[in-house]
Structures are given as C-alpha cells and as structure tokens.
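Q: Start with the shorter request: fold the first protein.
A: Done. Sequence, then structure:
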Amino acid sequence: MHFLYPIGLLALAGLIVPLIIHLWNVKQGKTVKIGSIALLGESSRASSKSFKINDWLLLLLRCLLLVILAFLVAQPYFKKNISANIKNGWILADKATFQQVFKTHKKTIDSLLKKGYEIHDFNVGFTQLTLKDTVGNQAKQTNSLNYTALLSAANHFVPVGASVYLFADRRLNHFGNELSTVNYKLRYIPLNQTDTLSSWIAEYAGKKYEAKSNPSNTSYQALNSGDEVPINIAIHEAAGIADGKYLIAALKAIGNFTKRKIIINPASGKIDIGFWLSDDPVSSVFKSSIKPNGALFQYEKGKVIASSSFINLDGRHIELSKRIASINGAKKIWTDGFGNAILTNEKSNALHIFHFYSRFNPQWNELVWDGLFVKALMPIVIRADNTADFGFENHPSDQRRLSAKQNDLFQPDKTKSTIKTTQNKALGTLFWIAALLIFVTERILSFRKKPNDVKN
C-alpha cells in the first residue's frame, strides 16, 4: 500500500485525544447519610476520581476511527504491477538475404516460429515477412541506415522487454561510430562468413594509398611517396618580429613526419599557403600570390588583452598570456578557456583565411614550446577534404568485423527494459466504508444502557 500524500499520516498524532478522554473519565462519589450517627455531625464531602480505562473496546474503536481518517487524508492507493503482454518476440533478417539465412539457421528459426515469434525485415519500417519470402531469389536492396541506427529505430516498434534474434553479419562498415542502447533483449547471431581479403586505392592530401583489409584490420601503404607535388609556403615577417623561426621549425617537422616536400619562400611561382606575421594589413601582392583555394594565415591587429588563461587544443591546455580582442564572426577553431576566439577560419574569394588572435611568441603563449604546435598546424599545412575520414572511411570493401568476444555489444537500457506496466488503484472507498462501520459501532456502544444490579 502506498500513500499519495504521506504527510497526512501526521494526523495519527490525534490518537492521544481518545486516550486522554478515557483516562480522565471522572466518576463522582455519592454522599450517603446514616441516621444513627447523624448527631455526630456531618462528615466532609469527598469525591473520587478513576483513571482506570473501563471500556477497552470503545477506546480501540475510537482510535481505529482516527487511524482510518488519517489514512484518508494521506490518500492510500495500491500499486499493481501488470506484466507487459509480450506473447512473442521478433526475428530480424535482411529480406535480401533471408533465403540464405533460413537455409543456414532453419532449425533455430523454426523453433522460434513455433513459440510465436514474428519475422521482420531488418530495414527501415521493419516489414513483417513470412516463410514465403524464402522462396526464389530476392532483389538485392541496400540498407539506407546502418545497423546501429536500425537497432535504435527498432525501439519504437519492438515491445519493451521482448526478445529479438538478429541474423546479420558483423562487418564494421555496417555500424556507426556509437553503439545504440536497445529496450529489448537482443541476441546477435552472426552469419557464417569466410575470411576474405580486399584492397582499394584511397587518396589523402595529394597522396595515394593502397588499403588492404581483412577481418581483423585494415592497413594503408603509400604508393607514390616521391611523386607528390611540393607544398609551397611563403612567410612574411614584419621588422622587429622573430616569430618566423618557430614557424619554420614546425614546418620542417611536418615535412619530415609526412615525407612531403615543403618549400619555404620559393623564388617564383604561386604558393599554396601564406603566413602573414605582421600587424600591418595583408598586402594585395602577397594575397594574389596564393593559389586559388589556397590558404592565408594572418595575424590579427587590435586591442591587446592580458589573459591568464589557456588555448584549448585537442583536449589539452596551452598556457596563454596575451591575446587580441576578437571581433570576427568566423568559425572558431582554437579558443581560450573562456570561449574567446584564438584562431578562426573563413572562406573568402576562393581563399581559406585563418585569423590568429595571438602570436607565435613565448611572450604571448607557450604554444611554440609544445609538441602540439606541429600537430595543430598539420591540418593547415596539409589540407584535405577527407581529413577526418582518412583511415576510418566506410568503404564497402572493408572486411573488418566485430570480435567474437564482443557478443554483448548492444546492452538493454535498464531504465526502460526493466519497466513494468503499473496500475494504481485508489483505496479511499474501502477506508470510507470501514470508517462508517466503525463509527456506527462506536455510537451503539456509547449509547448502550448497562443494567444496574441493585441488591438490598
């Protein structure tokens, strides 16, 4: 039994009232005059008080009546768990491969069907299938969603807590970056697949790689390590500024690491990237020397702000002493500890412009002394559209699979899978009836006339 307003039980303190009434039930004594001693004078009157409870039943009835009234104030109810009406579960399989799945796992599927399981297409909409769909060749169709998204979408179709048997392969390219949480009991039965090898050509930052994939890993090997076009970089440094030496050291480190040829301040020709290390506005000549779709990295001029903060780079904090007040609304790439822009990026007239609101100088920050400096410049120097995807692309020839040890990938959401349907039933009516019966009984006992036995 539960109470909607448990604070109402404080009314039980009223039980002390009938107890006090019964204990202080005073009986007055009677004065009897006897003629034979009348001459001796009238004795002083005396009264007697009895603190003895004479009627226990009446006291209990009155106390019980108060208990029931307190319960009514607290509004009692009974919570009844109603098990979900899950008569069966689901069998999930891609309709395009269901014929082969049924041949391979016929015994398992037949036993599940006898238990009342339903067959559903492992695709958007989860269309119900029948054994007729195992006859003949099915037209091949491609999932518009990956397995992770489909299993998450199934939460809206599969009854909570139901059992689901999924017949599907375990290749990684079918899954998203995160595993979903399901509200049903999922049993993943992998399809039998022989170990296969595949290869394809991938491009990244002007270099070609041969990707070789097997069920356990995918590796990349550069093909034209000596055929890449050099990266031409120009550095303009204003008089009195010695920041260029730090930048040149970082660029050389990038070249050694990536095995790319980087030419700093070429004698002639267009440049790929220009670094303008000056407070003066970027000259039109310098800007026009950059190739279309090239990059310009420029110091921003403005109010210098002393800042006891840090530059947030790749989850690490680089000490920041001074910065320039940012007024540009471009996309933030680097920020300080307060979210102020340190480096922003925008595209203007076929040129990628990076606005830097600090300096490559130890008096401004500790960036040039940190090994993260080289890594931070890498996406600016070696730019590629598929930077984030390289090595993680969802290539159809990727043979990598989930490990056999990863059988419990999609854990049920305990906050939902353990939920049982409940029904609250108010008990107020029963308590009112009980209160009425007790009140009537108490009144009858209170007005009941007790016979007086008089003996002469």
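Q: Next, the second protein, separately.
A: Sequence, then structure:
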Amino acid sequence: MATLFLMIIYLAFIGLGLPDSLLGAGWPAMHLSLGVPVENAGMLSILTTGGTIVSSFFSGAVTRRFGTGKVTLVSVAMTALALLGFSQAPRFEVLLLLTLPLGLGAGSVDAALNGFVAKHFEARHMSWLHSFWGVGASLGPMIMSLFLARKVSWRGGYGAVSAIQLGIVAVLLFSLPLWRRYESRPVLEPEEKAAAETSGFAGIYAIPGVKLAIFSFLGYCALEMTMGLWGATFLVQQYGQAPESAARFVSLYYGGIMAGRMITGFVTLRYRFPVIIRAGIFLAVLGILLLFLPVPGLHPASFLLVGLGCAPAFPGMIHETPERFGKDSAQAIIGIQMAFAYIGSTTMPALFGLLAGRGLISVFPLYLLIFAALFLVMQETLNRRMKDKEAQQKATA
C-alpha cells in the first residue's frame, strides 16, 4: 500500500507538470491565431504564476484544514477545467481570465507535496517525484507538436491535455481513502509549536543562509521557465525553425529534466545534492552556449543538455532545506522558497517577452546565462556558509 501511495503522489506531479510547458510549445501558433503580439505570452505567464504565488502562501493552512488528498484532487480538477477553457477560448481576454484557476490550482498542491516529501522521504524519492513532473512537462509539448503537425491547431492540444488531467482527477477521487489512511499529520512538540508561532516571516529571513537559498530559487526558476516559454519562439524567429519542430525541441528539454531527475535519484546514493547540483549547472551552461551557434543540428542537443543540467536543482534545493535550516523551520522556509521560485518564473520570462517584442530575441542565450550565473553564485556561497557552520559546530562540540 505504501508503494501505491507513492505512485499516486507521482501521478499528481504528472498532472502538475502537464500544463507548465504547453504555453511555450503552442505560443508561436497561438499568438498568430488569436491576433495578438508575441510578447503577450508574458501576460499569461504573469497572471498564472501570480495565482500560484497566492495559493502557495496559503497552502499550509489549506492543507492542514482539508488534507493533502483533497487539496490535490481539487487543484488538479481546477487546472483540468482551465485547460478545457483554453481549448475553447474565442479571444485572448478569455485566456487571461482562465489563468486564475490555472494558477490557483497549481500552487497549493506543489508546496504541500514538496514539503511532505522533503520531511518524510529520502533524497531519491524527492528527485523521482520531480522526474514525474518532468513526465507531464515533456508530454505537454509532444502532444501540442502532434496537433500542430496535423494542422488541428493548438486548441486540440489543450483539449487533449485537459482530458488527461480529468483522467488523473478520477484516479485521485477514487484514491481518497488511501490518502486518509496513509497521509501523515505530524503534531508539533510544544517547543516546536512555540517556535512556529513566534518566528514569523521576519524570523525566517533572519536565519543565516535563507536569503541565499531563496534567491537561488529565483535564479534557477527564471532560467528554467524562460527556456521553456521562449525556447521555441527563439528557434522560430532567430533561426527559421518550423514551429512543430521547435515544439519537439521543447519536449526534449522537459524530457531531459525528467530523465535527469530519474538518474539523479540513483546518483544521490553516492553523492550529496550540492555536488550533483554544481555538476548540473555546468552542463546547462554548455547547452546554453550551443544556442549561440547557428547550426540547426546542435539545437536538439542544446535543449536536451539544458534540461539534463537543470534536473537536480529544484528537488535538490527543496530536499536540502530541512538539513540546512532544521525541520522545525523547513515547511515555512519551503513556502517562502516556492514563492520566490514563482516570482522568478513569472517576472523574468515576462521581462524577456518585452525584449522579444522589441526585436531583441537574439539575446535569449545571454539572458539565460545571467540567471545561470546568479544561481551558481548563490548556491556556492550558501554551500560555503553551511560548511563553515558545520565546522564551528564540530569545534564547539
């Protein structure tokens, strides 16, 4: 039964990943169909992630009130209905309205499941959990590419993904008894409860290293989401790639994330996450550098390398949180980290949309390198501080 419970959690993360890559894969065709400028993708991204930020801040209270199973069920249902609306939307303004349930549906389940797995499962399970997000995120562009290639239009792609989401909703509905049976509801000890009640956001930010951690999330998610949202458009406009081929390359990117996280789960048996994350970011930088070259044959490898390099970052940083800052503060810190992750994934792709709309699509690889550098500097500084802290604790022991 425990294995079945984990499989249900993984399935929920497939549902979480399915919508995340659809907009980037379909936008080169969508903006022409709807008659709106190319930079309007940034508006949809901002509003969607804005809803995600709001729901993630309240995810702790909502999950305590209703339980992770019900929160997951309702969240996936909201995204399924929003995607169905996308497939039928007659105007761009309708898409703007539908970003509200799409974003709200993603935030609560994301923060709740991440916190749960970080505190109660080993590192490999966290990496594998996020690899199943990659399953969903890589399936999205593949489905969109099939519909674009058959001239069915992007609407068919959104409709198909909505149908898959509704199937996941059915599984989650019938699995609610399992959630009630296996869901962990730990009760805080008196001293832990007091710490949670008195620390607040100011106390969390004052913990050494927290600011470095949250800006690591901002930098990483800016890189990940900008690549996913604008990678296809960059290839189409800069190098004349066909939209359906560019969509397949986006699928390669998310497939790289998926495969990389699956591999990382095994690598954690030998190496710690900080080492794996460092190796990954250098691999991602190599993939970004290939985008500077006007050689079409290198672009699939570029997308795949960036995906593989990004793979260990998010699950690794989440899983390291209880170890770096203590289990008492972990859930609160994870919530703040998720919020900054969403801020990075909202504002920075939107900012690039403004650049693309002004004819600066060619700076795309340089833009990615800036956030790769920010992420690397924040992580390496944090790692050094954690090592210094461990050394001081050993010296005083």
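Q: Describe the second briefly.
A: DSSP finds 17 helices and no strands in the chain. The CA atoms of residues 323 and 330 lie 9 Å apart.
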